[in-house]
Amino acid sequence: MAIKDSELILNPDGSVYHLNLLPENISDTIIFVGDQDRVGKITAHFDTIEFTTQKREFKTETGTYKGKRLSVISTGIGPDNIDIVLNELDALVNIDLKTRQPKKSLTSLNIVRVGTSGSLQKDIPVDSFVMSSHGLDLNGMLHFYQIDKISNNEVENAFIKFTNWDKNKARPIVIENSKSLEMHFAGPLMFKGMTATAGGFYAPQGRVLRLPLADATLNNKLDTFSYKDFRITNLEMETSAIYGLSKLLGHNALSLNAIIANRANGTFSKNPKKVVENLIKYTLDKLAE
Prior knowledge:
The chain is α/β, with parallel strands linked by helices and 289 residues long. It contains seven helices and 14 strands.
């Protein structure tokens, strides 16, 4: 049965609604960034750029780096934006947009997020990189999908017990990265751990302006949680959504962060732009191998 117009919305030129992309506009290897201005900082390293478009916060550039065709897409901030980006990218490669039928032969995309973050652990210094072995979903968006096959109940239950998690909040979900991408990107500067994904920047990450927090001790619980080999290395707003939807849709995903601050030590990078640039170059060279 064809997917209805109201469910898969296309622009007049046949491109997917939010991203404004046609299937031929993207590579099967894609770099995600949050900030639209960071797209150009990555593609500045490209040998050629064949395609550029932008609609709202979603900017895409496709070109080649050392002979490897790559796309760079800005997702904007938060799990709700990831829901849009990943579903529309999957539609580009796995749905025939003319017949509106899912394809019989499915394509797996390789997706690498390049972001910045602060470390929660003393032994992960500024100017290093963190690879997310797992995403810890604290925002609840993924509960609208059937997630039983991708979650880790053992670690989730340990986290719920340790934090005395409020039963009125969405149940935390732990989702693994792509092991093939993890092995490919491993290196001496790359630390590994679980990345917590919040649904907002202020209270969901423990920041107080004029509104009190429901649990003022939650940040400390995140910092000190430890179960077997699991600990939380950093906190941001996209990784668990990327991992969850990629797993459900059959894509490979890895989240990398340049560490520009260490909350446990109270330190901040003396040259955060250089740290980000180093991670960009590291990512591009790994993808081109």
